[in-house]
Amino acid sequence: MRIGSGAGFAGDRLEPALELVRAGVDDLVLECLAERTIALGQQRRLGDPDQGYDPLLRARFERLLPVAVPNGARVITNMGAAHPLRAGEVTREVMTAAGLVGRISVVTGDDVLDRLDPATAALEDGIPLAEHGEIVSANAYLGAEALLPALDADVVITGRVADPSLFVAPIAQRMGWDLDDVPRAAAATLVGHVLECAGQVTGGYFADPGVKDVPGLAELGFPFADVATDGSATIGKPDGTGGMVTVGTVREQLLYEVTDPTAYRTPDVVLDFREVRAERTGSDRVRISGARGRARPEELKVSVGYRAGHRAECGISYAGPGAADRARLAADVVTERLRGAGLRVRADVLGAMGDPDGECRLRVAAIAEDRMAAQTVCHEVESLYTNGPAGGGGVRTDVREVIGIVSALIPRSDVTSQVTFLEVNDATA
Predict the structure, then answer these.
(1) 8 Å CB contact between 160 and 78
(2) How many CB atoms lie within 10 A of CB 90?
(3) Three-state DSSP class for residue 172
């Protein structure tokens, strides 16, 4: 079977996903959810109960589904974020408006805010969750077993699911693999890990001019995997697209976000990379094999969002003779005026690049407990117009709440997933 990666983060490009569908894939996965992304989704939902899903979902699906559904490419995505059910309803609206017929499934159950003990220690620092600040979200990383009952659909929408698991479920279903079969679960997880960041494995984020040159980066193609019955897979990209698939791009992605290559924990398996091999089999084709693993853990990771204060980001520009010196003086002035305010303040002069008369910009950033204190920082930067060095201009200020992220563990038995099906047919048109 062939599975493609149509997005590697919330702001990813859409054209490469369309190219994958046109080239032919059985499944197209859009991985659009990070730890901070889902916390911000929860924040939006607190302000508006109809929000919380990926803001780009409608725009993406209006272009993608009229191509994917008629071509038989099942779309699987975590763009449901903090509100998967509403995301499913929006998807139905899009399909109906486009005259499409089909079925949508929505996977829920990752929201465990009401089941998480605030006294639980955060994995990062061992401090109880409640001591970090007011908890606003807690989402467990569901595994492939939560998705399997949802795969009888044209579009599958989830909230927080482990990134590789979005790929593991359709691979296991189409290949007839049992998720309790550790070698098979490891093989599918390896494929998911390589594909999850989309363009990273085809040369995006890999490129470094003069060191690692990547051809056609402006037309970067996204990857697919041809999964074989023996568990190996060949990574490739659509012909005629930019970028490249090489042993080097695959190896970099293999190491991405892996702190312990002997025990990469996912909800489906504890993956061991030590015997993984990447071998070139042709132009833009690399075969991966050798995944090993241990049985899935009995605890699931939880991404916890908490209120961490407010951040001020402000800037002012200086140009012409002595610009860099004036900008540095402005930084000293603002820092002195904010001394004693109990804020963490950072002031940086950007630009100039060794030219003291070139254009440069002062950037001031600070974290405060409340919005009013953060706005004080912006006021001091704005006041540099007439209370600081000569020639300042182009002030921009921004204050917004910060949602901090920490991780915790929860027993797998405390997390229960559900699947809701939404039909799109002539009766709803």
Answers:
(1) yes
(2) 21
(3) helix
What's the per-residue H, E or C state across 288-348?
EECCEEECCCCEEEEEEEEEEEEEEEEEEEECCCCHHHHHHHHHHHHHHHCCCCCCEEEEE
Indicate the pairing of strand 155-158 with strand 74-77.
Answer: parallel
pLDDT of residue 429: 39
Tokens of 402: 């910060």
**How many whole angstroms separate alpha carbon 355 and alpha carbon 215?**
33
Determine the Cα angle at 402 with ends 397 and 404, to 5°: 155
Pairing relation of β-strands 344-351 and 360-368?
antiparallel
For 305-359, how does the pLDDT look when each residue is reduced to its tens digit (9 = 90+)?
999 999 999 999 999 999 999 999 999 999 999 998 888 899 999 986 667 678 9
Residue 381 · residue 315 · CB < 8 Å: yes
| Backbone phi, psi, residue 426, to 5° | -60, -30
* 37 conformational bin, left if phi > 0, alpha if psi -120 to 50, beta if neither: alpha
CA distances from 344 to 81, 243, 369 (A): 31, 42, 10
Q: Name the pTM for this structure.
A: 0.93
The residue count of the chain comes to 429
260: left (phi over 0), alpha (psi -120 to 50) or beta: beta
> What backbone phi and psi angles, to 5 degrees, belong to 108?
-125, 175
Give the separation between CA 268 and CA 162, rounded to whole angstroms.
9
Which two three-digit tokens encode residue 392? 């300042």
Three-state DSSP at 144 gives helix
pLDDT tens digits, 369-413: 999 999 999 999 999 999 999 999 999 999 999 989 999 999 999
Backbone conformation region of residue 342, classed left if phi is above 0, alpha if psi is from -120 to 50, else beta: left
Task: Give the H/E segment covering residue 175.
Answer: helix 165-175
CA distance 69 to 154: 7
CA 167 to each of CA 76, 173, 320: distance values in angstroms, whole numbers, following the listed order = 9, 10, 54
